[in-house]
Amino acid sequence: MLGKNVVIVDDCKDYTELIAKKLKREGFSIKSFTAPDKAFDYIIKNGQEVDLIILDLMMPKLNGLEFLATLSERQVKTRPQYKVCVLSDKHDLLEIETAFKLGASEYFLKSEPLEILVEKIYEFMEVSSHPTPDQKKEFISLLEITNIIHDFQLVNFDENNVTLYSREELPIHSTIQINSEKLKKFKQTTMPINCIVDNCEILDERILITCQYLDQAA
List-wise, which residues carry 4-aspartylphosphate (predicted)? Predict the structure, then answer.
């Protein structure tokens, strides 16, 4: 991941330093800000050199959603190619969906291990050099209406269905959103994919879940 420039924006100094330390070990070049206004000015001036912005949604004076909206307005002509990963303290589906509409590429719950954040960054930035045991496995995040569930592994998908492994059982007919870069490319969208759970098959230590795309459900 050498050469990838990351800007971290979070008013919590301790958490910012924690993320920065973790990502530096992975080979990222880090620029950290606890003041969103200073981060905003830096990105406006250096946006073309930034590869990734990690942005906290809950900040005083200028929250993450306001930050994204204002940034988009200011950079409407230059349109830098950086990705945005938003940080959240809570399972707020509406807030996360709004962040995606404003240009976010991924989200991360602060209660999760930082290893999951690193995996997500490598996935949505499509970096193939990350030393994973099996690079063909795609770990994704899945949002349920009332909760966010993590550590899902995409198995297969086609024009009608999505199959994935889980460690948790989901209710039949529950509505979920799957945030997978491969699946979004397949469906030709930048938004998470809405699906309905058709079947849950309990295996040894995980559960095989079959979903149908919501836009194709009867």
Answer: 56
Domains and CATH numbers, the chain: 5-124 (3.40.50.2300), 138-216 (2.40.10.220)
Query: Residue 137 to residues 48, 127, 132, 184: CA-CA distances in angstroms?
Result: 31, 14, 9, 16
DSSP 54-79: EEES--SSS-HHHHHHHHHHHTTTT-
For 73, residues 6+ apart whose C-beta sits below 8 A from its C-beta are none
The pair phi, psi for residue 43, each rounded to 5°, is -70, -40
Give the CA distances from residue 127 to residues 130, 146, 197, in Å, rounded to whole numbers and listed in that order.
7, 32, 30
Q: Are 185 and 178 in contact (CB under 8 A)?
A: no
pLDDT band at 68 (very low <50, low <70, confident <90, very high): very high
Handedness of CA 208, 214, 216, 218 (dihedral sign): positive
DSSP structural state of residue 80: -
Cα–Cα distance, 94 to 51 (Å, whole number): 26
Q: Which residue has the higher pLDDT, 12 or 172?
A: 12
pLDDT (tens digit per residue) in 203-215: 877 788 999 998 7
Tell me the residue type at 155: V
| Helix, strand, or coil (residue 34) | coil
Residues 6+ apart with CB under 8 A from 199: 172, 209, 210
CA distance 82 to 97: 19
